[in-house]
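QUALITY CONTROL LOG
STEP: pairwise intake check
CHECKER ROLE: data steward
CRITERIA: each record must contain a sequence immediately followed by its structure tokens, with no blank fields

ENTRY 1 OF 2
RESULT FIELD BELOW
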Amino acid sequence: MTDTTKSIAEMVGERPSVNNQDVFDELWAITTELKEKVFKRFTLQPDPCSARFQPYGGGEGTPSGFLSTFAGSEIDWLVYSWVGTPNTSFTNMHLTINVGSQVNIPHFGFALGTAPDIFMYMDYLPRVDTWADVAYADKYLQPANERFLQLRQDKRFSPFVSQDMSMRLFQTPTSHCYMVPPTDETIAIVRETAHEMLDRWLGWFDEPEIVPETERETMAARDLYMRQTICERDPANVIADKLFGKEYADELVKTLWGGNRTLPRAGA
């Protein structure tokens, strides 16, 4: 098992013309399966700020995408999206879910893509400083540790090490972040891991730990800062700049973190 330290842009540049339509379809199906589970559990409304991106781009065979955003009383911000050129090497899809400030359940981070091998990222984003609250890490991160160790021992899953320090900073010790060759077996593992992560996350809402009202404004501000920082500093943004132009890509990034949202924030 060798760590992958090349950037997504570098890997795509080395193999720019791999037809990944079938792999994209499989990964988008996994993302949609998770999204449907979430929508069965929560009442969510689409935010008008993303309506113009459904879809966007030049259509089949050219750089394209789909970006939808939602919010509700329990979920502060949900992004369900994809971007890229499925018939060539690069695609990227997201199901990122930020929780309202009334509970301290971690946010759900999830991304799949092709570069041209499968890029896989799944993590629980803490709402507290886990150095100062180890009990929080024991409760929310430790349950993912067994799968983390299992994948680390699977030589088909090469840990993806971002060149960007901040991207590594934002990952937890049990984050699943890998490059994976696309096969029926590896895609099955990706699907199993994805559902395991989401089902565990959904289960935490059965008995959530309530945040005192006096602390919710601070938590909401922290959540927004995290979300905006991660979106704006994502090294893969340079690919969107090349595909759609810097100005248009900046609008996509702003919509991803909710900089132009109209729906109220959850827990405020």
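ENTRY 2 OF 2
RESULT FIELD BELOW
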Amino acid sequence: MKILVAVKRVIDYATRIQIKQNQQGVETANVKMSMNPFDEIAMEEAVRLKERGHAQEIVVVSIGLPASQETLRSALAMGADRAILIETDIDIQPLAAAKILQAITLKESPQLVILGKQAIDSDNNQTGQMLAGLLNWSQGTFASKIIWQDNTLEVMREIDGGLETVVLQLPAVVTTDLRLNEPRYLSLPNIVQAKRKPLEVISAETLHVDLKPRLHILKVTPPEKRASGIKVASVAELVNKLKHEAQVIK
């Protein structure tokens, strides 16, 4: 089996975010960048499937600027066999990302595509589902456990009501949740070895995919600061405030 893993270069989760003055996004200049945490989990799961003998090759793909090669090298150090960068300076939205991944999937012919359930920069949680729809493949989203059984995948999903288990026939698309695994640390020998692994760069224009944005950002603002609490003199006053000010009870 061949596994395709999609990863994204995002602002590091521990970095303090600054809003641009024009309120059209966040500052990315001179900011620490890293692999999207959910995609790290996807990469780790692909490596574990290969280590168990369920896969022969792992191909990792990313979309973005040339700097995304650094993220791909990290994925190669984790255990991917080769990498593909779809190079573009366009701000790629979920549907465009799904169409690009569809083109690469048709080119590479993997039996399984794994990606994080969402990117922490936009939190859209759409690309995996759109990709499965475009390919007309089975999908298992928010995976917290994956079991390989007789050429099928048993995926335990985290849903609002608890857990749901689905059995997927390959080919399939799986998106990963936080509790699926804990990504491994990168060892120095693996980092050095990753520099010798193949990394192919493809211009997004050559894929002939419609990258036109469907979403328009009106304004990006920081969340409102949380108001300080107050003390009340009695239960009756508390109930009154909850009822008339907070309006959380009737």
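INTAKE CHECK: passed for both entries
DESCRIPTIVE NOTE, ENTRY 2: The first helix runs from residue 37 to 51.
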